[in-house]
């Protein structure tokens, strides 16, 4: 049964989850992505959780196709010895792997690229949107899945903005085949950690280029948290020509000196296995860490979803799972309730969930944030940063932590 038309702004994972679920629930769906080309090779590693697999099952996507399974977690010392191990079975995947599966599940013709939203207007009859290329569209419901810098959220709730947490995450992917035999044997089949003073490194295996899953063709993903005050973030965001990229520097524009520095620091402060991972990653990049909380998600016929609504620090590994849960909650509400009631119910349910996830991620990231505080707070934070605690709580949903 035709439920009406939905326009989704943002064609990344949150938008694709919403598009697939709503399309299966009987809605006519159009996805509008600002970037002109396909997004399939963008992004890095993704941690999975049971809630994510439940949503994928709704879409007929077999969890065996998702990623690489590990059975345990381990922590390495500065010299490379194992100083802690924790059994925890988990599947790790890559952004591109999920994107390809979700994109393939969506009917052809409803995904539109090169659509930069300029404005929207709504009334009792629907929502009208216009794009920078002069085109426009109309829908009964508009879903904003356009990320942390959401254009839709800026139009409807300009007071809600990301808050910088005071540290960055260096990230990257290295081909499995590029790793030495000793490093591969120690790291590749585990969720690994290293805890140098005032920092945290973690890594895990994911699908390889072209979403390859065969042994030897996969990749290793790393996330390395390092403190960076406002001045340091500005320095990191300055390219070779001296231009500062305030809203995030594209990876290819990171200054040569900054990349050389991060590789040198890795060699000095990380376990040699992780230092090798950083050294052999072709294009490391960094992600400033932000918190974002929206007090409400429904604005008439417009709703926020995924990172447009809440952004939790990546310590909890819940970003993609939360977006999938948002999409499922929205689809179920629209199936069971009249439109206005459905959007209000969705907002109430997911605001509560989003707040809990953000709070959990802040707890996990408190140690990193303390690095910019006074020495007493640093020492207090250090007490709660044992290998056992880090392995037990990182990338685990709040209910299971």
Can you tell me the number of structural domains? 2
- Biggest pleated-sheet summary: 9 strands, mixed
* Morphology call: globular
Amount of beta strand: 25-35%
**What would you say the CATH architecture of the largest domain is?**
2-Layer Sandwich
Low-confidence regions: none
Put simply, the count of helices is 12
What is the helix/strand order? EHEEHEEHEEEEEHEHEEEHHHEEEEHHHH
Beginning-to-end CA distance, first to last residue: 41 Å
Question: At the third CATH level, what is the topology name of the largest domain?
Answer: D-Amino Acid Oxidase, Chain A, domain 2
Helix content: 25-40%
Classify the secondary structure makeup into a structural class. Answer: alpha/beta
CATH class of the largest domain: Alpha Beta
Strand arrangement within the widest β-sheet reads: 3-5-4-12-13-14-11-15-18
Query: What is the C-alpha radius of gyration, as a whole number of Å?
Result: 21 Å
Number of strands: 18
Q: Give the mean pLDDT.
A: 91
